[in-house]
Amino acid sequence: xxxxxxxxxxxxxxxxxxxxxxxxxxxxxxxxxxxxxxxxxxxxxxxxxxxxxxxxxxxxxxxxxxxxxxxxxxxxxxxxxxxxxxxxxxxxxxxxxxxxxxxxxxxxxxxxxxxxxxxxxxxxxxxxxxxxxxxxxxxxxxxxxxxxxxxxxxxxxxxxxxxxxxxxxxxxxxxxxxxxxxxxxxxxxxxxxxxxxxxxxxxxxxxxxxxxxxxxxxxxxxxxxxxxxxxxxxxxxxxxxxxx
Length: 244
Hints:
This protein is of the alpha/beta class and 244 residues long. It has a domain at 1-90 and 209-244: 3-Layer(aba) Sandwich (Rossmann fold). The protein has helices spanning 53-61, 83-88, 106-111, 121-127, 129-133, 144-157, 174-189, 202-207, 226-230, 233-240, and strands spanning 15-24, 27-37, 42-46, 65-73, 76-77, 91-94, 162-166, 194-198, 211-216, 219-225. Strands 6-7-8-3-9-10 form a six-stranded mixed sheet, with helices on both faces. A four-stranded antiparallel sheet has the order 2-1-4-5, with helices on one face. The chain is globular and about 45 Å long. The model is unreliable at 1-9 (pLDDT under 50).
């Protein structure tokens, strides 16, 4: 496996995970997971279904049973902190289920969680023009793609330093997927945000990320620059079974 970048420009990783073991109750799903994510970097986690990708995201958020290991945000250990305190320290999360506030308008969804920082309401509407056009509509009045845009925008409104995305383009129409991928690229290119994304659509994940982590049975079994794996079909097939 290729060596990992160890830090941001100031010497501290945005996210550092060491020896992470976690699961649900006494059941263990993650087995000694270790990796870093740097500021301004987009890292994707890929693998077959049921290998622990979503468990990894939920563990970083504090929603599973921690059984060992360390999680640090910009050098501060957070593995023992509850979810809301991790959020206040700069952890943003977009779950698979989106979980927008259906009774609130688009704008209310964004302003109710807003914290000071570069992701202002104006910046969010610039990133997602569809939301600007639907700002007065309730969350329940949006399409699936618009709800996903809102979920991402709402996470950004908290002005996180690390954003976790759990399968952000799953089940969406190709045109909406293109819009979301372009928006995620803009978020990464802004340079002040670290992004960790789980994505089942490996071609999209690899084509639009810096590095990849491949999981199997709760472990990271391969890591490398994303473009390297994208063009190695033999290795891809061996790791996640994608033979054409």
